[in-house]
Amino acid sequence: xxxxxxxxxxxxxxxxxxxxxxxxxxxxxxxxxxxxxxxxxxxxxxxxxxxxxxxxxxxxxxxxxxxxxxxxxxxxxxxxxxxxxxxxxxxxxxxxxxxxxxxxxxxxxxxxxxxxxxxxxxxxxxxxxxxxxxxxxxxxxxxxxxxxxxxxxxxxxxxxxxxxxxxxxxxxxxxxxxxxxxxxxxxxxxxxxxxxxxxxxxxxxxxxxxxxxxxxxxxxxxxxxxxxxxxxxxxxxxxxxxxxxxxxxxxxxxxxxxxxxxxxxxxxxxxxxxxxxxxxxxxxxxxxxxxxxxxxxxxxxxxxxxxxxxxxxxxxxxxxxxxxxxxxxxxxxxxxxxxxxxxxxxxxxxxxxxxxxxxxxxxxxxxxxxxxxxxxxxxxxxxxxxxxxxxxxxxxxxxxxxxxxxxxxxxxxxxxxxxxxxxxxxxxxxxxxxxxxxxxxxxxxxxxxxxxxxxxxxxxxxxxxxxxxxxxxxxxxxxxxxxxxxxxxxxxxxxxxxxxxxxxxxxxxxxxxxxxxxxxxxxxxxxxxxxxxxxx
Length: 536
Fold this sequence. Notes:
This protein is an alpha+beta fold. The chain has 4 helices and 28 strands. The chain has helices at about 1-45, 45-75, 80-215, 225, and strands at about 240-250, 255-260, 265-270, 275-280, 285-290, 300-305, 310-315, 320-325, 330-335, 340-345, 350-355, 360-365, 370-375, 380-385, 390-395, 400-405, 410-415, 420-425, 430-435, 440-445, 450-455, 470, 475-480, 485-490, 495-500, 510-515, 520-525, 530-535. A hairpin with a 4-residue loop joins strand 12 and strand 13 (about 370-375). It is elongated, with a radius of gyration of 62 Å. Residues about 75-80 and about 215-230 have low confidence and may be disordered.
């Protein structure tokens, strides 16, 4: 048993030795694999160093062989001294030491070479980038040079064109000055010819009148004609409530409109230098004809009491007189130095009164076709109304002036709050209506000049310096057009706004007219539109 136990103990010891041996072999193999892996990994990195070291070893071996040969020869020659051997051994040690130092220096130099190589690579990369930038800058410089050449050429062409235009400008300026001088000469010549033509026309008219007088006939109405004046009767005017007819009556803006007092004949005058006649039938305006002869726009129109003659004021500094049976003017009354703003018949029908922007009012004798009196009225005259011996004028200096035509003197002044744009007188000649730029209408009782009534309305505004307001035929209402395109109608007795007629006009209303029968109202505006209104 003891032997069996001893045998088992020996067996276990042998197994432990075998296991220990296996463990040691496994650890060694692991170390060898790691060394081989590191050798394989680092061999490529230090290949140059290894080669240099091998060379050094070969040189060292050669030196060792040389030394050994020397030592061998010393054994053959025992006469050599121990000092020589010691010296050689010392030199061999020095060579080994030097070889180690040189190997270390080689490693250091290799490391420096790698550092410098990396620096060189960075500098080479930067140099390549700089070259690329340089190429881009050179390309841009080339394009800019081409652009500069193009701009220089363009500037040269523009300079040449500018010089040409400048030369043309000088030539055209010289031509303009010559034409301006020529135009002034032609204008002066035209004025002279017009004056001569007016003198010749007045002379012919005087001769024709004298011939007709010798034959018992006159240019003006006879006494019987003057006594027989058909008068329209209006018992009560109707307040208009709706538009019956809307049309573009002229080619340009319309400045004036007036009904004949004897019938429903209407006349409109516009900037297109013509007067158009209209018959009001069945609630529509029917064109009856045109009165021509004005050289510029019409500013006002007036029928005489017979309804057969028309007097009109014009921008061409004249007033023109027509008979309705002839489209050409019978007389042209010239003498004002600026535009004529108003022309009205006097009660005798033999005379006409005109007001002008030249601050004068003139009285004309139609029998002689000549001016018989000039009144200096102190300010721009915008409108006139008259009776037999009294002339009333409205002015831009905010005053209404009353003149005695027999003495050519001002008998009364009525101050207002704004420029006077128009005047109208009632059919019974008892009330005077004025419209002014303070957006109001005023009625003056001519029997008591201190009595005045002012009419205003929200939204009412005069559209121009020649806005015309009127009485109704029976004197019960006032009508005026506004800048907002609406017609405003006031009740004279109550002083209140009776009605407002909007929506038919798209621009400022210049003038309104009320028919003698009191049935119709017509409004005209700056955009050549005429609207017929009625209360039916």
